[in-house]
Write a structure and sequence with these properties.
Blueprint (H helix, E strand, L loop, with lengths): L30 E2 L16 E4 L10 H7 L3 E4 L3 H7 L9 E4 L18 H15 L1 H12 L6 E4 L6 H12 L4 H9 L1 H15 L15 H15 L2 H7 L4 H11 L7
Parallel strand pairs: 2-5, 3-4, 3-5
Antiparallel strand pairs: 1-2
């Protein structure tokens, strides 16, 4: 991240709930999205919405840990070609699987210039995705809004970009403060570090992963949210544009927000 004399984009560690991390050994970036305060000081319920990197590495040995978490629905945001290449989450009994690809250009076509702002680069990629992948983002949030689907886990490859956008939009609708939304997004840097170490371990000859694929600077998500609101008036207005109904927005708040003092 570039210089930030105002401190606006620094991650507030006090905004991060230490209890969010969930043990799922086959993943690098799996965590509970609950714990933040939303509208009316109502906390986002734990155990309802999770985010993760790709779940294709889960095996039968991971079944007990996954089942213990209680996931009913998997929303896989990867491209169909990524699913074909790597595979999908195992078809555990009672698990519903959705592959929803928010249309977007391959980042390889718009490489990040070394020395340029990484946060600006990522925010621009997120803005592009929000424009071309509107229907997919709306479909994903609509599935999260249906309490019958919970608990839900949303994932992509690294669990930070496409997943980060869906979770940020969801938390914003719930009234979570931007400082907490961006802090949750920035946590993916830790997951990316674990993922990078794993890649090095399984590729003795080395692996070159571009910086944008591993970094999650809080400033990037803040820029994205600020500019989305400038363009649409509010996150809710953007989601309505994406096909999410007022009834779904209300349902999202009803089942993901606990009463004050609850969890």
């Amino acid at each position: 991240m570039g210089s930030d004399p105002t401190g606006r984009y620094r991650v507030n560690v006090d905004a991060i709930d230490d209890n969010r991390q969930t043990s799922l050994p086959a993943t690098f970036n799996f965590r509970d999205v609950g714990g933040c305060l939303g509208h009316g000081d109502r906390p986002v319920r734990r155990g309802r919405l999770f985010r993760s990197d790709s779940l294709h590495r889960l095996t039968e040995q991971d079944r007990d840990a996954f089942v213990a978490i209680g996931i009913r629905t998997v929303i896989d945001l990867r491209r169909p070609t990524e699913v074909q290449r790597d595979g999908r989450v195992p078809a555990y009994q009672g698990l519903t699987y959705h592959n929803i690809h928010p249309e977007h250009d391959d980042w390889a076509g718009v490489p990040h210039d070394e020395g340029a702002s990484l946060a600006r680069y990522l925010a621009d990629r997120y803005a592009d995705l929000a424009q071309t992948g509107t229907a997919g983002l709306g479909e994903a949030v609509g599935l999260i809004a249906d309490s019958a689907n919970a608990p839900v886990v949303v994932h992509c490859v690294a669990g930070k970009d496409r997943t980060g956008i869906v979770c940020a939009l969801t938390l914003a609708v719930l009234g979570v403060d931007d400082a907490q939304i961006t802090a949750d997004y920035a946590l993916s840097s830790e997951g990316s570090a674990r993922y990078s170490a794993w890649l090095v371990a399984i590729n003795p000859d080395g692996v070159d992963v571009p910086a944008p694929f591993l970094a999650s600077p809080a400033e990037a998500m803040q820029l994205f949210l600020d500019e989305l609101r400038e363009g649409h008036g509010s996150v809710e207005a953007y989601l309505r544009h994406a096909g999410v109904t007022d009834e779904q927005l209300a349902a999202l708040r009803d089942h993901l927000l606990a009463e004050p003092g609850g969890a």
